[in-house]
What does this fold into?
Amino acid sequence: MTSVILMTGSRSWNNVQVSADALSATLIMLGVTEKQAALRHGASRGADTLLARTAEGLGIATQAVPAQWDRHTEQCPPWDRQNATCKLAGHRRNSIMIAAGANICLAFPTHAMSLQPGEDSKDTSRGTWDCATKAKDAGIPTLVVWGDHFFPFGQPGAELLQRAATQRGLQLGPSLSAPILGIWLPF
Ligand SMILES: [Zn+2]
It folds into this structure.
């Protein structure tokens, strides 16, 4: 039985070390080896590409679910159909990735969920938060990677993190966060 690690992340995410640490820590939280896990990603540049490459380097299988940017569907509203690029393709892809089920969802945003006043509105991790929200609402334990910490996003994610922390005698920090490296420190 393969454990599926669903991931979503910003196109400007580029932290190689935290990507590798987050994947390793996730295997330990799920209690599986590299061979028993698969990384499902959206095949976009940035986080998706970096995490897929990192997973392959660790011997974790990868499943790419690219968005169909050049195709509209029956559900696309008129304002969207006027464009050559489907603005809803990313959201559609996120729903497909989640409907297939997953053991955990890791989100790698580069911006907070709400923009700060005056913040540049380009590349704002909106797609990442959309996918994380859908995963959480589908009951998939969802963790946000922010700095070098995991933050639970929703109740199932909080429970997973609490369980992993308790098993290792770790205290969760503010907002129930856990240092990524601390997850696999020896007892
Ligand atoms: Zn469309």
The CA atoms of residues 9 and 133 lie 13 Å apart. The helical segments are 16-30, 47-58, 78-81, 89-99, 126-137, 155-167. Residues 72, 76, 80, 86, 88 surround zinc ion (CB under 6 Å). The domain at 3-184 is CATH 3.40.50 (Rossmann fold).
